[in-house]
Every structure is written in C-alpha cells, then in structure tokens.
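In this supplementary section we document a worked example of the pipeline. Step one takes a protein sequence of length 374 as its only input; no multiple sequence alignment statistics are reported here. Step two produces a three-dimensional model, which step three serialises into structure tokens for compact storage. The input and output of this example are shown verbatim.
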Amino acid sequence: MNSPDVVVIGGGIAGASVARELAASRSVLLLESEPELARHSTARSAATYIPGHGTDVMRALIVASGPRFAALAEELDAPPLLLPREVLWVAVDDAGERSLAAMLAERAGEPFAPVQISAEEAERRCRAIAPGAVRAAASTESAADVDTDALHQAYVRGLRARGGTVRTSAPTTSVTRRGDGWRVEAGGETVDTALVVDAAGAWADVVAGMAAVPRIGLVPHRRTIAMARVPDPARLRGPVRSPMVCEASDTFYFKAEADDLLLSPGDETPVEPGDARPDELDVALGLERVEAVTKLGLRSVRTSWAGLRSFVPDRRPVVGEWPEHPGFAFVAGQGGSGIETAPALSALAAAVLTGEPVPADIAVDAATLAPTRL
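The serialised model returned by step three reads:
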C-alpha cells in the first residue's frame, strides 16, 4: 500500500461518503474488512429519508441533506436517489398520543416539521390502516425512500474518480502512533498516514481501542425488519404510493413494498458489534403489532433480517478527534440515520477534519458533535 494522506476505516455509507469528500483535497485510502462494501448496517436499512425526526442535530442534518441528494445524483451520474413517500405518524394508545403531542410541540416551526392530521385522514391516505385503529396522526409529506445502493455506489465511484483507493478483505489489525502520524496494518499490509478516520460503524470503539485512543461509549443496538406476506395486496395500493406508517413511540413501522409489507417492531436491543441476526420473537412481535393496526391478516414472513444502530448517550453523531490524540478522528454514532444524513454529515466531517468552515447550508455547530462533549 502507498502512504496516503488519509486512511478511512469502514466501507459503509459513513466511510464511503466522508472518503469521497476528503478526496477532493487529499489522497485517500478506504479500508473495508469484509469482501464487499456496505455489508452490515448500510445494506440492512429501511432506506428512508424523513425530515423532522430524531434529535435536533439529526433533524438539521436531514434537512441539509435534502437538496444535496439531488446535487449528488447529477454530479455522480446516479439515478434519482430519493423517491417521494409520505410518512404518517400514528398513535394507537395513550403513550402514543403523548409521544405524538410531544413530537409536534418540539418540532413546531421547524422546516418540514410533521403536521397534525385527523385519524380519519390518516386512514384515507393509507388504506392499510384498519378503521378505528388510530387515535391521532401527523404527516411528513416531504419524506422519501432512499436508493441506498445507488447512493453508496455513487460515493465509491466519486471517491475513485478523485483518485481514491478502495481495499476490501482488508481487516484492520493494528493502529499505532508513529511520529506525527499513524501506522495502520490491514489485510496483511502496512500503511503510514497523517490522518486515520474511524468510520467503522458499530466497530468504531473497537478500532479506537486498537489505537489506544479513548472510546466514545458507542453502543450498537439490534433492529429487526421483516417482509410479510399480505393476503389482500389490493389494500396496499391507491392513486398515490402508500405512505410509510410509524408509531409515534417507535413501537412499530411499516410500508408497502410491491405486494408485501416491510415492517419492524422498532426494537433496540443492545448487542456486541457483529453480524446481526433477527430474533424470532422480535419478528413475531412486529407481525403482531402491525396486524393489530392493519387487520391485513399477516401471518408469515418471506424473509427477515437485522441491522445495527449505534448510539452514544446523547444520540448525536461523533465527528472529530480527542485533542490528546491528533490525527485519529471519529465519524460515528449516526444511529439509524446514517443514510439520510450522509450528504450533509460527510460534508461537515470533511470540513472539520481539514480545518475548513462548515458549509453554510448545514446549520450545525461542529462543536456539538466533537468527542470532547461526551
């Protein structure tokens, strides 16, 4: 391997996007331990872009990412990356009504904030909702599905076009301080670099431990998704695309995918970083909760999978380095929003790591993402 300016560890959406941004002014090597890129969380996402959800910082990053998706598609010769799909937030019990009211109050006045609608209007917009199953509802009409594969491939293509290099089947085995920089051993080879970017997702603290750098307290959480068979797919169709439906307390969500229903029980089970597998009880719970609100006759699934959503305690991303360990930087902790925030977060991270101003369209104070806040 050569001695690039930057080594990015992790080939998911975080690593690919920040590597491409950094390659505009630096030589970059992207390392991925698996034989293929984006095998874990990136490939197992529900692939949605939902303005107005998440923490305050996440909401700002999502809003800033919206126009950037279109710009990326044009610049990187990709197909349209967002396909509009309304999101309905619903409450089906007392806890859900409290959560929905709190959400609407907290986000009031923000760009693309959810707008309250009647339960009857929610039923009209989504024929999959059973009559009388919903007590209260709100809508995010600016939401969309994300073409995750196209987005990730575009970033990798853009990285290579800027002279960047990608190495797969190259697990990082050692990161050590060497003079003013770092020495990384990966895939049986050694490379020296001025900057290591730890974008290893659920493994970010593992990589930090290799480098004898303080951890950020990242905890991976398993999230289960299943594709359920729908006996009467006609209820999934209408004059417009059927909305995605999210319970306001995050106890389930679902959306139509052709004649099937993608669904999740909204589980967040703390686990060690690894190749996540769905739990049969979580799959059954998801079916039960979604059947209760749809009465679609859901009894079985075609397939199920699980991904990892990794958070630090305040559920904000971590971007930057510990002052005592210059040249080792984190881009981690995106939770379940790594894809929908990638355009803005990668641009912000590249600015932080190169000492440039954060782009004016990204209304986030970089200091609020620094590991020193933890």
